[in-house]
Design brief:
Layout lengths: L1 E8 L5 H12 L5 E8 L3 H10 L4 H14 L3 E6 L7 H8 L4 E4 L13 E2 L2 E2 L10 H6 L6 H16 L8 E4 L2 H8 L10 E3 L18 E4 L8 H9 L5 E4 L5 H10 L3 E5 L3 H10 L2 E4 L9 H8 L4 E4 L2 H6 L6 E4 L4 H13 L2 H18 L2 H16 L4
Parallel strand pairs: 1-2, 1-3, 3-4, 4-7, 7-8, 9-10, 9-12, 10-11, 12-13, 13-14
Antiparallel strand pairs: 5-6
Length: about 375
């Protein structure tokens, strides 16, 4: 089997880039893998890419050359926006090549991509023929023009039937699948398959866990930083925060005022694993529909319990009382109560939840499990024997 993986990198590296790299390496000797990558540019080059995104003939030429060179039996697309555009799907289908597309976000449902705007979940685009309200609010990059152009691109290709030409959409959770199926997207449920991301497991630490809590992630509004800080400010319970982002100064200010809140800065993967190994629990207070946060997977892989918002991917991944705990999204007092209840548990009960988190990881989120799922999808679409 020959697989061509197509991916467009955003200006700033993110989780989609990580998954693209992981899945490329995951296939190993099971398939002949080739890649075609693009990158969003700044300035006038970025404007040029965006203007041509509805029908980028130059990107299309690169896709055609890659198909001639590699003769793929299947094409897997991770991200099309904005340097490639939907033309890649149409080119592949004209050549009779099955197309798989991973939906890392909700951009095909709403220009926001996150279903989050102005501090709260934004779902008004899900059931409309055209997302006029999203355009009026400028949900993409705070720009009505950019939002409108993106909305027009998605709408145009909906009218042309491009999105229905994709043979299989891969979504990260059943929650995400339901958002697409029960929307105006117009693609049947049979074309969606749940295939989660995965993480690399590592030996469980034999170090004793402390009573402190950990947050790892981008210091931004949608990650629930305000909820996190408000919940811990007056508790006296130790919180360690790792990450960077626009709310860094606010985190530093809280750390100066409340000495039990410690800012660790942006940590590398090895140091994050070390922190996960010794914390009592990871706090994940996100207030938007996450795709599938790698931080949660890494917590599960280290046997670390998670206390998270009962929302989106978190609600799909965490079974309350089994492999973690949930609280109402955006509810700082609710999180505060969960923290107190957590510390009232004896060490045996907390350890049991941590073990269950690791079992969940082994059952659903390992590279081996992911490899089987991905190859089965490819083989089914390409009609090749196992």
């Amino acid at each position: 089997m020959r697989v061509l993986i197509i991916h467009n990198h955003y200006q700033h590296p993110g989780g989609e880039d990580v998954v693209f790299g992981q899945e490329k390496d995951l296939l190993g000797d099971a398939a002949a893998v080739s890649t075609l990558t693009f990158r969003n540019q700044r300035g006038w080059r970025g404007l040029w890419q965006t203007l041509w995104s509805p029908w980028n003939i130059w990107a299309g030429q690169r896709v055609k050359r890659a198909i001639r060179q590699h003769a793929p039996t299947i094409i897997h697309i991770h991200n099309l926006h904005y340097a490639i555009g939907p033309i890649a799907i149409r080119i592949a289908k004209r050549r009779g090549i099955p197309v798989v597309m991973t939906l890392h976000n909700y951009r095909l449902l709403c220009p926001s991509a996150t279903l989050f705007h102005n501090g709260k979940v934004f779902t008004e685009s899900l059931h409309t023929a055209f997302p006029w309200k999203a355009v009026r609010l400028g949900v993409h990059s705070h720009s009505r023009i950019k939002t409108g152009w993106l909305a027009l691109t998605v709408w145009l290709h909906k009218q042309l039937g491009t999105w229905n030409q994709v043979d299989r959409y891969l979504v990260l959770t059943d929650f995400a699948k339901q958002r697409f199926v029960n929307s105006s997207f117009g693609v049947p449920a049979t074309k969606f398959t749940v295939k989660p991301n995965f993480a690399t497991g590592f030996p469980l630490s034999d170090q004793p866990r402390g009573t402190h809590f950990l947050f790892v992630g981008r210091l931004a509004e949608e990650k629930g930083i305000d909820v996190l800080l408000q919940a811990f400010a007056h508790t006296g319970h130790t919180l360690r925060i790792a990450g960077d982002g626009p709310l860094k100064d606010k985190v530093l200010a809280y750390g100066n005022q409340y000495l039990h809140i410690h800012y660790l800065g942006a940590l590398d993967a090895q140091r994050i694993r070390a922190e996960l190994a010794v914390c009592s629990a990871l706090i994940f207070p996100s207030i938007w529909y996450e795709g599938m946060p790698m931080t949660l997977l890494e917590a599960f892989a280290s046997g670390t319990p998670v206390i998270a918002s009962d929302l989106g991917a978190m609600a799909a991944m965490i079974k309350h009382g089994e492999n973690g705990w949930l609280f109402a999204p955006g509810d700082a007092r609710g999180l505060q109560r969960r923290i107190a209840e957590w510390l009232e548990l004896d060490g045996t009960d907390r350890a049991a939840i941590g073990r269950e988190a690791y079992v969940c990881f082994e059952q659903h989120y390992t590279a081996a499990v992911n490899r089987v799922l991905l190859l089965d999808i490819y083989q089914t679409l390409a009609g090749t024997p196992e």
